[in-house]
Amino acid sequence: MKRNGLYVVFFLVIILLFTSCLTKEQPNTLKNVEVSQNSNNSYSSFKLTKDSFAVELTFKGKINSEDFVFSNIPFKIVSFDGNNTIVSLSFGELKKKNFEFLKVKGNPVLLNSLSVDSLSTNITKTSTDTTPMLLGDFNHDSYIDLYDFAYFKEHYRTSVNNPGYDQMYDIYPSTKGTDIFENIFSLKQPDGKVDIFDFAVFTINYRKAANRPPVVKIVSPKEDEEIHGGLNNITINNLDPDLNNIVYDIYLNDNKVESDINILSKNLNLDYPKDYLLTIVATDVVNNYVTPLSSIATVSFKTINTPPIISFTNLNEFMPYNFKLSVVATDIEDGE
C-alpha cells in the first residue's frame, strides 16, 4: 500500500513538471506570427515568422487598449467589430523575421493572423490608372502626413459592398512610377477593398512628396480679339494633375489687379481704346513641406470705343404728321 502511494506521488510530480514545460515560454507558432508567454503568463509576446511590411491580428473578444504594448510601431489601427478585436500594424518598412512587435497582457486567444511580406505587383494599366498620383495624399496637398492617415483610418476595412468604401483609399495593388514618382507607389488598380495591403502601401509612401505645376488656359478674351471697353468678363480653365487647389494672380500690362483669387471668372473694368496684355499666374496650394509651383498664361487683346445707343420713346403722339427727325449722339470722353 505504501509502495502504491509512492507511485502516485511520483506520477503527480512527473505530470506537474511536464505541464510546467508546456506553459513556460512554449511557443505557439501560427502562419505569420510566433506567440509565446512569459514565465508567469502575465503577458504574451508576438514576433514575426518572416520578413513583413505589415501584420494584422484578430483576437477573440474585446481587449482594452491599455493591455497592448507596441514596440515603436509608427502606424497602428485597433478596432472592435462587435465580436473580436482587430489589431492592424504597418511598419513603414520591411521588418525582419523574429522582430517582436507586440506584447499583450494575459493570454489572449489569437483567432487569425495575416502579414504583408511583399508589395510587388504587376498591375494592368487601364484608363483610370495611367496618370501617376501620390497614393495616400487624400487631402491633395502633394504631401502625405498625419492628416492623410486620419482620412485613411475612416475608410479602413471597407469594401465595395460597404457604404463607407471610397475608391480613392483603395491603393493596392499598385506599383512605383518614374521621374518624380520613381520611388513612390503612384499607379494603382483598385481591388475593391481597403485592407492591410493598402495600409502597407500608405505607410511606405508616408512623408513623401510629389508635385507638378498646374495647367492654366485663358478662355476669354481670345488672342488679338477686339472687345468693347467697360466691364468685361475674364474667364480661365485650369487643371492640376495632383488635384491641388489653385489660386490666381491677374495682371494687366504688368500691373497686378487681383491677387490670390480662387474663382475661374472675374469681371474687370477695362479702359478704351487700349492695348492690353493679360497675364494669369496660377499657383497650386500645397503642404508647407512642399514648394508650390506656378504656371503662366498670357493673351494680347485690345478694347475699342463703343458708339452710343439711340432709342426713341413716345413718338406716337406725333403721328400721323410727317416730320424729319435728326439726332446726333456724341461720346464726350472719346469722340463721336
Instruction: Summarize the biggest pleated sheet.
Output: 5 strands, antiparallel
Q: Please tell me the overall pLDDT.
A: 87
CATH topology of the domain at 2-116: Immunoglobulin-like
Instruction: Quote the distance from N terminus to C terminus.
Output: 139 Å
Overall geometric form: elongated
**What is the string of helix and strand elements?**
HEEEEEEEEEHEEEEHEEEEEEEE
Assembly of the depicted chains: single chain
> Fraction of residues in helices?
10-25%
CA gyration radius, whole angstroms: 36 Å
Flag low-confidence runs: 15-29, 332-336
Strand order of the largest sheet: 1-2-3-8-5
At the first level of CATH, the class of the domain at 2-116 is Mainly Beta
The number of distinct helices, counting runs of at least 4 residues, comes to: 3
CATH architecture of the domain at 2-116: Sandwich
The total count of strands amounts to 21
Task: Please indicate the percent range of residues in DSSP E strands (runs of 2 or more).
Answer: 35-45%
Compact description:
The chain has 336 residues and is mainly beta. It is built from three helices and 21 strands.
Helices, strands, pairings?
Elements: H1 2-23, E1 28-29, E2 33-37, E3 43-48, E4 52-60, E5 68-70, E6 75-80, E7 84-95, E8 100-105, E9 110-116, H2 146-155, E10 158-159, E11 174-176, E12 185-188, E13 193-194, H3 196-205, E14 215-220, E15 225-228, E16 230-239, E17 245-252, E18 255-261, E19 265-270, E20 274-285, E21 294-304
Parallel strand pairs: 15-21
Antiparallel strand pairs: 1-2, 2-3, 3-8, 4-7, 4-9, 5-8, 6-7, 10-13, 11-12, 14-16, 16-19, 17-18, 17-20, 20-21
